[in-house]
Amino acid sequence: xxxxxxxxxxxxxxxxxxxxxxxxxxxxxxxxxxxxxxxxxxxxxxxxxxxxxxxxxxxxxxxxxxxxxxxxxxxxxxxxxxxxxxxxxxxxxxxxxxxxxxxxxxxxxxxxxxxxxxxxxxxxxxxxxxxxxxxxxxxxxxxxxxxxxxxxxxxxxxxxxxxxxxxxxxxxxxxxxxxxxxxxxxxxxxxxxxxxxxxxxxxxxxxxxxxxxxxxxxxxxxxxxxxxxxxxxxxxxxxxxxxxxxxxxxxxxxxxxxxxxxxxxxxxxxxxxxxxxxxxxxxxxxxxxxxxxxxxxxxxxxxxxxxxxxxxxxxxxxxxxxxxxxxxxxxxxxxxxxxxxxxxxxxxxxxxxxxxxxxxxxxxxxxxxxxxxxxxxxxxxxxxxxxx
Length: 388
Description:
34% of the residues lie in helices and 24% in strands.
């Protein structure tokens, strides 16, 4: 299905035959091709073997050409993005999740699992031996290790950007005796928290669009692919040497003493806002506005926790000051005023205050980054390098 090339480059593809399933209504026999695009999307191309493809299928079930059962996971849904003309025999879909089942045992004996990490390159402030980390989180052991072609992937990302698999997170569901079991819910909670912390540490969005389960002898049980919101790799934070040690940042996320209690989901949203501010492919003014807006949102959110007065009625400086005080960030009056002026100009006029755009942008990023790190329990001092 060469026409799928128009959607962009891909990391992995599968081909097979099966059925488009409908609720209600009879299924339609199809050939299909599945691709995980480098931007994180899951693309499925279908060709009917006879019948007209009707609208709104519920799922795809079938087998790969190599024989393994394939499914788009019932209930997760597929979304049509393209239809052919006339007697429709071809259609393209986006899937939320796909699964290749490598064993005939429907209740797989999952002994271990590994999660793919895309765009994870440890920064210069991480103490790394062979790019390998060992972590103990909630009494469960995890290992982060590089992929076999890590050197090639690293060079591509640093030179051209993009979105490529660089590492694996590996762990076991239980030890040899069956002790120390972990549930799927706890496992997902840990891995997603770990990815948020890693993204914050290195300053670029790290995603996990694939996971693989293994039986006790190391044979694959399942490969599951997830559609993810990927962004091109950005080396801005490591290039400034503003990255934080990966292991210590992850430890802080799970065990650090947080000066203000915000929910992890809320912190994750703010981290993505910060990463947008660090995206190299965007205009400087756009990045600076993203950095300024982050300060607005976090300060306003904290004000609502401390006061009954709506934040829209309060000057930005008055909202920001108690946040900085309560997380232990101290700024001199000239430095604080330079932040306020830069934020006001960006929010109200869409431009920076002076001709020194790079300095003002970096000051906003420094402060926002320092705030987020302190909120997750890491004692950042990056704000001390802000320039007046």
